[in-house]
Input
Amino acid sequence: MKSSYKKLGNYIQVVNKRDTDKTVDKLLGVSIRKVLIPSIANIIGTDMSTYKIIKKNQFAYGPVTSRNGDKISVAILEDYDEAIVSQAYTVFEVIDKNKLLPEYLMMWFRRPEFDRYSRFKSQGSAREIFGWDEMCDTELPIPSIEKQVEIVREYNIIQNRIALNNQLIAKLEETAQAIYKQWFVDFEFPDENGKPYKNNGGKMIWSAELEIEIPEGWSVNLINEYIKLSQGLAMNAANNHLVVEKGIPLLRITDLINKTAEIFISEKVEKNVIAVKEDIIVSRTGQVGLVFRNKIGVVYNNCFKVNPFQNLNKEVLYWFLKTKKMYLIMNELASGSSAQLDLTHKQFYTLKFVLPTFSLQLKFSEKSIRISKHLEICELQVQKLEELKELLLAKMTKVN
Output
């Protein structure tokens, strides 16, 4: 161990202040992403005076590691001056900020190596605990405060760039969704004179299936008339041999959301479970109804790969599936008797789809594809910035 490594216990202390007067109403919990977020716990009838107060730049962590997969739940309070957290969390703070910056310490906690360390050091049988003593025994490099400031500044520059890109991504998606709604929900697509179709006397016909009027020349059918579903690869004992060190990334829901690649599959896998860049992927279990594209890899069993037939443009299909209405419908269809949501082929195929004329689909595609290309550029920038951020976290072991 390098001489610059120090025991964390010399720099931190427990904070155990309770909200006995019930003056703090912001209840937070630590997410698996290592941030404090509003709690969704049912607190009706709960004595909130026993909850712990956490102040800005203090930390909260859940010592039970066996329920969190590979990650330990630890986070710093940054967005509020104070809040309350459950008694199950340990709240602590840095003793002297002139020796250790809380932001620098949080960077160390974000490293995957710290997650592995905390899991390895956890103890217990029924449930494994990374206790306070183990936290204090953690060793990490603590350079000069000037160096810590420099490292945190570099990290924050990357984080801010990621946040700006994500804001732009959200705005671009909102724009595309607004155009889709205007054209294919409100039926105000440009007519031959470039004016909104419905408001300018465009001919409408009654749809008995939807019980609304739709533009003349459009048709309504179940979505199975227009698309083919391919379910992803189910990992089991029979095909574990397909897992390799280097190969095609396995695209689970968590990988699609977090833009990670933790498991790789041999190229010998069946081609029908491989997604190429243009393919649309929809989550079908747990977090149902999430829609992705521009992903390359082996689709996991908790997702569908959705491919349209020739009479349906892929841009139109993608933004149809991305609508909030479709998200809610898919979740409703997936809510059965089991504890976990599960959207089957049969249920998915019951979605009703209004098919516009193909010429209008092409016009929409020409318009939306410009937005889609800009989205792809922004998402690629976020991916590169995330890689740069991980590289900076990895380099923390080499600071002096």
Summary: The mean pLDDT is 91.
